[in-house]
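Provenance and format

Records in this collection were gathered into a single text stream. Each protein contributes a sequence line and a token line. The two records reproduced below are adjacent in the stream.
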Amino acid sequence: MSPSTAAETQPARVIQQWEAVCLIVGLVIGAGIFKTPSLVAQFTQDPGWLITAWVVGAVVSFTGALCYAELSSAHPHIGGEYHFLTLAYGRKLSFLYAWTKATVINPGSIALLAFVFSDTISRLLPLGPRSEGLWALAVVVVLTASNLLGLHVATSLQKPLVVLILAGLLIISVVGFASNVHLSAVPATAFQSTPRPASLGTALVFVLLTFGGWNEAATISSEVKGGHRAATSVLLLSLVLITAIYLVFNLSLLSALGLTGLAQSSAAAVDVLGQSFGRWAELAVVMLIGAAALTSINATMVMGARANHALGQDWQALGILGGWQRQRSIPTRSFLVQSLISTALIAIAAVQPDGFTAIVEYTAPLFWAFLTLISLSLIILRRRAGAETGNTYRTPLFPLFPLLFAVACLYLAFSSFQHAAANESAFISLLVLLSGVAALVGLCWRQRKLQQCLSGSQG
């Protein structure tokens, strides 16, 4: 392959910093923030511990982000986490992660978010008994088509949607603080009771799930204009913005509803707006949740397709994933394969919704287990490089931060496995991993046979 041809199959730095922030914020701030505050209130049973859980979630996320900032700075690559695992542990282990992510985690997230969107839109525009499934398929097809038009179309769609979500959350927060019904009671009752460790741990799991998605920033680190310094700034700025929004939003819900009201509410944002706007509140929140789901789907598609592209580049038998359209800055075939898997999962979910939820939920143990390895990969790669790290970002308090993040990920992997085992579905994660092992064995065998054929023909 000539240098010019190789350049045309590789991504270029075409993403503005503000566009990257919109992608990350839109990916993280999904529909979950409208549900998890009530769940966290139920498990903590104390306003002080509720806010503490969100602060701890932010600290854990920042710790991970500092680790990812160095990894992305020193090793910018469209494969992101897959690339870090390859460098630290080799191609075989990284393949198992990429396989899990490409076949279940990313397409499953897209399908799940599509159902969140379809559930909200079906309340306004029902399409019959299969309304949710039809809307879910429609949104995946439409967003895939818009992404195939080029990265500029995806980012152009993302920016107004993110602004809409931030504006909506701001309005809800202002209304919550303005109601001032329970605000005076919050400081007085904070830390009056201590939740059980198991309950506090479960609350933290939900908080970190709501913060989830920032790690995908690694997949666009090689495309952000300004180099590694800009990519690091984008990641940290995104998390600062997300943390501020989450804390303000939760405080406003406490102000308007109080701890008991928040814990008992199935739609806290609707209840807050309902105090001032009545029945129109539900319509406004439904539209806001729909917009949040759209931004998350769009960003997940952008990030996931890029990780699949890296997989196709490294494994010849999966070359169908490796095509890159430089003019539009997209991996076209990766988008198509990702969407086909997503629509297949939607079709399964339309018939067996519980089964789909289990597939998505019970891959969490694998995800957090791999994230533990990724955090430790920073220690491995830093020690290999020694002092020759170049002009790259350096994680402070090394190796304390990578170790702390690894412990947090390991805890979440254990908690996720416990949850899966309690529902007798832990075997699903094992099946996903075994399918990856089988695919890896097949690829290695095929590659070995190919090398034998080539060596025979040359002889």
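Adjacent record:
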Amino acid sequence: MKLTVKKDISTLKAEDTYCIFVTDEQSRSWTDRIHPSINEALSSIDTEAVTGKYGEHFFVPLKKTPSLLVFGLGKNIDLTSESIRKLGADLAAFCISKNITSISFVPPAPGNFIEAECTRFIAEGIVLSNYKFEKFKTKDKKKLIENLCVYSSDPLAPSIINEIQIIYNNTVLCRDLINDASYNSTPEGIAAAAKSLASNKNIKCQILGKKQIEELKLGLLLAVNQGSARPPQLVVLSYKGAPSDKSSIALVGKGLTFDSGGMNLKTSGHIEDMRMDMAGAATVMYAFKSAVELNIKKNIYAVMPLTENMISNTAYRPGDVFTAYNGLTVEIGNTDAEGRLILADALAYTVDKIKPSCIIDMATLTGACVVTFGETVAGLISTDEELTEKLRKSADRTGERLWPLPLYSDYEENMKSKIADLCNTASEKNSGTIHGAAFLKNFVGNIPWAHIDIAGTAWNTKARGYRPENATAFGIRLIVDFLSAL
């Protein structure tokens, strides 16, 4: 989809659909904002049918002049940023159902919202819902919206739309990578996608293959990889947006390109979608790319441990003990608790080699997080209150919701092993999301760290507003907002 901003509404083309948003308080005066070429066509139409109720729409398809689409915003007092985004998604769904490919709108400023906010929320709702993964379809493909124009003289509009365009492009790439078959989104395939980012002169890409990973003794990453015929990769992307600043932010993403569960094999009903277990890696890669393209003045790293977790005669087993990059020994209580293993090595490597000022990891880590929050909210566990607060503010601004969970020492005690330093499963079979984070805490040292469990939000079992079915790319806007606000 191509996004543009124009000031002169007279440039509307006949093939466009012109969208107006009205609250129920404005339902009697909305015709004042109609493009002149549409006025005559409406002379015989009962325009009082427009009530302004939330989500109610009034569509007038016209020939040789722009068609008209009026969407109700509801009551001013009920409006939120999310309800406006949802309305943008509803508008996009309606246009797609009618094969409308070019739409334009004049941003409203209802209630306590300013025009720039509504420009952002409506455009985000439209573009983020304008997505279908149809790579493997040979027929019945959906026609999506191709052009979106915002008619506004607001000086903030061009920069807002430019930002949304960049994030939309990267969201599509992220969703495609997660949705793709696991024989395409392999460790080497994702590493190649990361390497292609280095065509941007501001990005450097380092890819460590199996031999280098062995030399560095990332024993937990190697353990998970044992059952796979595909070699592991460790990818490090770097961007110096503030060369004179010594501080930096590291984003670490779990990259299980397919998770069979290993010897603790996943059952039917759980294994079918496990190509999505690399969503953390995909999200940090495209959040990183968005930050670079938006020229955010921060030093940023994206670290991605990549492997499959497969079952074979060489696969690691429950009861095995392996040594992590930082020297801690780990007993394997369950081979399906593998995400924390590869993250642990990646976190310890990041602390040792990069020495960032803070670390944020994103991972589809625990089914327990889905049980707790469903597909609506991601779990947040952190060692730093200031970092937690900044992330929560970004979550509020973007609608990519987070909710904090505690990390008391009791949980850390449960991750100790009788035969090694740690076990990758807890001695108590509860609080799974917290116990996963309690394990990871052993690998971040004293660096401020936040763990975001996106097990529920990264993959939707059905479309939810502007988030499509399957891969959502949840977290890109959250991280970009967080980086921008630092």
